[in-house]
């Protein structure tokens, strides 16, 4: 892994920074089956908590039972969550950390630093965090330094090995039938040319989302800035495994309170349609994910930007209707 580029999938290989391994050390006290069940349960809890926090940040201060049921049911009905639990991935924790970055305090900066220490793609949110103000920037820098020192003290070899491993991973082969990134989607239909065009389009979308994030941050629209940065994480790598898609629930939940009813309905159907991914052939599952992202990315950013443009505060509105409660 250190010596040369390698494929995007290496059975049995650990490709994360050491931070995640250090977090999982306490699970060694349990049997493998018990640890797997506990970790899967935590991932579900993290994702539900992330959706609730994001919805509250977007305008839901108090949730009624029916509204809470919608929030809990939506992430639990997603095939990406089931895939995440099956493989023991970390998407639920990353979603929770992403939801915490919707604030503008030191805790939000520390949450972002932790997300970066677990998975480097979270760096897309760094510009927005710096522009959010001094408190979040201080939390970010302090968190990054703390994790760097902790990793070097407890796992010095792994910490020093990770940079070349990351470079070799980024340079390796991504041609896998279950890679749902746009480069692989177009490769299914048009081969190598399609892969090149798809990667170019992904890079363009990444740059556009980063530019939108910075623009929103400069105009003090923090939720829009962070939502764009979170969505950008899906286009930074040349791989898009299905469990990566759980992160999209954070910006979707942020946008939900201010979205028109029709937009909510289509967004819900788009998310639920992901349950069909394992039932489709490679070409169709790639097409489905592309269509879902083509709807959710712009509609979500539009709704969040719209809510901040009219000055909607987290104390206004509820989840299932667009009315503003009378004090």
Features:
14 helices; disordered C terminus; 327 residues; mainly alpha; single chain
Write a structural description.
It is a single chain. By secondary structure, the chain is an all-alpha fold. 66% of the residues lie in helices and 0% in strands. The chain contains 14 helices and no strands. It has helices spanning 18-24, 32-57, 65-76, 79-87, 91-100, 106-118, 126-131, 134-154, 156-171, 182-218, 222-232, 249-255, 261-272, 282-309. Helix 2 (32-57) packs parallel to helix 12, helix 10 runs antiparallel to helix 11 and helix 10 (182-218) packs parallel to helix 14. It is globular and about 50 Å long. The protein starts with 17 loop residues before the first helix and ends in an 18-residue tail after the last helix. Mean pLDDT is 87; it is low at 313-327.
List the helices and strands and how they pair.
Elements lengths: L17 H7 L7 H26 L7 H12 L2 H9 L3 H10 L5 H13 L7 H6 L2 H21 L1 H16 L10 H37 L3 H11 L16 H7 L5 H12 L9 H28 L18
Helix pairs in contact: 2-3, 2-4, 2-5, 2-12, 5-6, 6-8, 8-9, 10-11, 10-14, 11-14, 12-14, 13-14
Helices, by number, come to 14
Oligomer: single chain
**Rg calculated over all Cα atoms:** 19 Å
Q: Could you describe the largest sheet, including whether it forms a barrel? A: none
Element-level helix/strand string: HHHHHHHHHHHHHH
Helix content: 55-70%
Quick recap:
The chain is mainly alpha-helical and 327 residues long. It contains 14 helices and no strands. The protein is globular and about 50 Å long.
């Amino acid at each position: 892994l250190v010596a040369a580029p390698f494929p995007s999938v290496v059975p049995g290989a650990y490709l994360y920074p050491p931070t995640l391994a250090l977090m999982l050390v306490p699970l060694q006290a349990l049997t493998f089956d018990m640890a797997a069940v506990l970790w899967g349960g935590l991932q579900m809890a993290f994702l539900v908590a992330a959706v609730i926090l994001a919805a509250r940040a977007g305008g839901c201060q108090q949730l009624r039972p029916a509204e809470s049921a919608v929030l809990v049911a939506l992430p639990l009905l997603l095939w990406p969550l089931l895939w995440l639990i099956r493989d023991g991935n970390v998407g639920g924790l990353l979603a929770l950390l992403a939801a915490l970055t919707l604030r503008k305090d030191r805790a939000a900066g520390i949450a972002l630093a932790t997300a970066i220490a677990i998975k480097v793609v979270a760096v897309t949110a760094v510009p927005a965090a710096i522009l959010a103000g001094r408190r979040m920037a201080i939390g970010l820098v302090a968190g990054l330094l703390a994790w760097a020192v902790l990793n070097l003290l407890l796992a010095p070899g792994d910490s020093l090995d990770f940079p070349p491993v990351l470079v070799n991973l980024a340079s390796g082969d991504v041609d896998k039938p279950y890679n749902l990134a746009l480069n692989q989607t177009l490769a299914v239909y048009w081969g190598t040319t399609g892969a090149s065009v798809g990667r170019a389009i992904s890079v363009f979308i990444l740059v556009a989302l980063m530019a939108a994030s910075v623009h929103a941050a400069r105009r003090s629209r923090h939720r829009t800035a962070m939502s764009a940065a979170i969505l950008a994480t899906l286009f930074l790598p040349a791989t898009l495994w299905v469990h990566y898609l759980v992160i999209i629930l954070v910006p979707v939940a942020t946008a939900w309170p201010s979205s028109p009813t029709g937009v909510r309905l289509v967004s819900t159907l788009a998310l639920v349609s992901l349950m069909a991914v394992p039932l489709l052939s490679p070409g169709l599952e790639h097409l489905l994910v592309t269509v879902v992202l083509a709807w959710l990315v712009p509609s979500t950013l539009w709704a969040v930007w719209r809510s901040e443009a009219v000055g909607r505060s987290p104390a206004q509105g509820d989840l299932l209707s667009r009315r503003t409660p009378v004090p």
